[in-house]
Structures are given as structure tokens and as C-alpha cells.
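ok posting inputs for the thymidine-5'-phosphate job
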Amino acid sequence: MKGLFITFEGCEGSGKTSLINRLVAYLEKEGIKVYKTREPGGSKIAEDIRNVILDVNNTNMDSITEALLYAASRRQHLVEKVIPYVEDGYVVICDRYLDSSLAYQGHARGIGIDKVYDINVAATNGMMPDLTIYIDLEPSIGLARIQNNNREQNRLDLEKMSFHKKVYEGYDIVRKRFSDRIKTVDGNQTREKVLEDTIKIINPYLERMMK
Ligand code: TMP
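and the output
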């Protein structure tokens, strides 16, 4: 039995990481084989690339260099981890995938969604997730959450609010363009309700997988 590839997307502080942790605990309790991972990173080489991308000292990084590094990290992680685990029947839960590149590099950095999409299709051989959950939360709320939680900030967290608003706008375009694959959960709700809505979306996919 082949597994599933499910990705999670959202602006900074949207609650992805906490949702993923609780979802993984729920799925494991249900006896489902789960592999939790994240981008950029998720494997030794991909984590090394992550450190270059997110280093707060790399302030003069060119935007296309940035997009290519994300794509390189993505490919390495896909080949080394995602594909083998899916082939082995796991539900792979990945914190971010190519929609992040479309929203951040494509729209917010202004490279163009189509151009970044093409780079990523080349990097991934067109491998798309079976399902993507987008947590819809405005960046002003998300960033306030991060500051309250004292989470360590990376190079992209340090961008101006106008950048994060563009990321949010980018996600709106991307989720409409890929509405068959990307399902939205309202991030303004309680953690419990966010998890409940996510499980409702995922359940039919799990049922199909187990047939
Ligand atoms: P994280 O905070 O979710 O770990 O993600 C790291 C940062 O990288 C976050 O600010 C979003 C950004 N990012 C992109 O700009 N493009 C991408 O393709 C990915 C995967 C992440």
C-alpha cells in the first residue's frame, strides 16, 4: 500500500507547527504510520542548505538565488525522505513545500508565481502533494503570536510587515489556483477546532489510502 504526502502551509505564526504535532499524535494513536518532516530541511544536506538560506547575516542574498536554494533543498529532501516513505506506506506530514516558494519567492519577492512554479516543477519532477492544508491567519496576528511565544526569529521573520502581507496575498492566489489540492482551515479558531477541521479534511484521503 502506498502512503500519502500531505503538506501544511501558512504565514508566520499561523500555528502550523503546533497543529502538525497534535495531528501526528492523533494519527499515531489511530495506528497509522506517520513520518513528520519539514522544509527547508528534513535531511542532512537539506538542513545545511536551510542554514544558508535562513542565516540572519545573509542580508544580501539575491532573490533568485534564494528561490533556487529552496528548490535545491526541496529536491534533496524529496528524493531522500518523502518519496521512500510514501512508497513504504507512510503518511508523510511536511511543514511547508512548494506553495511556500510560490507565495514567498514568487509573489512576495516579486519573481513571479509562474517562474517559481517552473523552477519547482523542474526540481521535483512535478511531484505534487496529495493534499495541502492551508491555515488561514493574517500575518499581523501570527507575528504577534511569535513575539509572545519568544520563538527564535529567522531572516524571513525579520522582513517588514508589508512583505508578510504580500506573502498572505500570494497564498490567496495560490490556493485559488490549486483549489483541488489546497484546502483551507480557519486559523482564528481554537487549537482544538483547527485540529478537528483538519482531521475532517484528511479522513477521506486516509480511507482511500487504506482501501
Ligand atoms: P519555517 O519558519 O516554517 O521553518 O520556515 C522557514 C522560513 O522559510 C519561513 O519564513 C518561510 C520561508 N520559506 C520560503 O520563503 N520559501 C520556501 O519555499 C519555504 C519552504 C520556506
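notes: Residues 12, 39-40, 70, 95-96, 100-101, 104-105, 154, 156 surround thymidine-5'-phosphate (CB under 6 Å). DSSP finds eight helices and five strands in the chain.
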